[in-house]
Amino acid sequence: KIYQIAVVNGDGIGEEIVPAGLKVAEKVAAKYNFNIETSSFPWGAGYYLKEGEFMPENGLEQLRGFDAILFGAVGLPEVDDTLPAKDYTFRVRTSFEQYVNYRPVKLFPGIQSPLRDKTEQDIDFVIIRENNEGEFVQNGKIMYPDTPNGMAIETSIFTRHGVERVAHFAFKLAQKRRKRLTNVTKSNTLIHSLLFWDTVIQEVSTQYPDVEYNKMYVDNASASFVLKPEVFDVILTTNMIGDILSDLGGAIMGSLGLGGSGNINPEKDYPSMFEPIHGSAPDIAGKNIANPIGQIWSVALMLDHLGESEAARDIENAIGKVTAKGPLTKDLKGSATTTEITDAVVKAL
Ligand code: NAI
Ligand code: MG
């Protein structure tokens, strides 16, 4: 079996950790008897500086035929990242209907969480973030900004179709895990959009009577991430809430550099895209000190999505072996390089 993978390193540490992820992918492919063929695309903020756009006009068409996309992160300090036209990530996620953003949070062996009394059993849940609509549809305008009457509006969009499909994914995932789903919402103040969100999810929940369904407001959920993460199994939440909570999830795992994720189109009508939860970390780029584990974990999530579940589990176990004994990178108070961690994971495989 041959998998065609589009590779987009992006900017900053993406150039270092994506190749690290591919090294691990090659090792596991040899072990499990499949092949990975890659094609690289030099897109992102660096590309923008040369070409005036984050990816070519026909970039999506170029990606369309691949089995999956392995992505690092885009963004450079000298490039304004507020202009939507520049946004590679947003275009791929929405155009390819990657409506599930799958973000597992778990404590790897040997890693000290900043929640000092919490164990591997306590920190083990998945954030399912709605990835195509909600607060991030970029639907708004700024009016008369330089006058005393200046104002701005930004309208979220939630559709029944959009909420139902991500809810079904999350409930099915909960059925395979500890059968508990928490809808993280803020419908007590966003009384139109998130009331609708809650209503649709509540309806979907009746089709999964074996899953314990509950609702939690995001303010309480933020505190619970820190005080009692053990109450979570599958979290289902909106685009913006999920974005914010997943960095908090990365933090309680011990480092943002550990978090992997998938932007998934469950129907496989389009390629899905796998990337670490963090950004391009320009502050540490080019030094071979970035933690590659979030990217390597993203490779595992990619292989799982492609049907190579055994290989995926093997990578996760290999990561655990490395975190248990070291070496570790600087973000985890170690002194190992990106290359050393990558080689250690390959060796563990
Ligand atoms: P960031 O996630 O890049 O960095 C936050 C902090 O975490 C930094 O101190 C960084 O050094 C550290 N860090 C992140 N990943 C690490 C790793 N693998 N190993 C060790 N330390 C790591 O977030 P920031 O600084 O807000 O954004 C930097 C750029 O990345 C911006 O241009 C932003 O727009 C972009 N960005 C891109 C994303 C994407 O392409 N999906 C997601 C988030 C941010
Ligand atoms: Mg984010």
From TrEMBL:
The lineage of its organism: Bacteria, Pseudomonadati, Bacteroidota, Flavobacteriia, Flavobacteriales. InterPro entries: ICDH/IPMDH, IsoPropMal-DH-like_dom. The keyword Cell membrane does not apply. This is 3-isopropylmalate dehydrogenase. Homodimer. One of its GO terms (molecular function) is 3-isopropylmalate dehydrogenase activity. Residues 4-345 form the Isopropylmalate dehydrogenase-like domain. One of its GO terms (biological process) is L-leucine biosynthetic process. It comes from Ulvibacterium marinum. Its cofactor is Mn(2+); Mg(2+). It is an enzyme of class 1 (oxidoreductase). It holds the Pfam family Iso_dh.
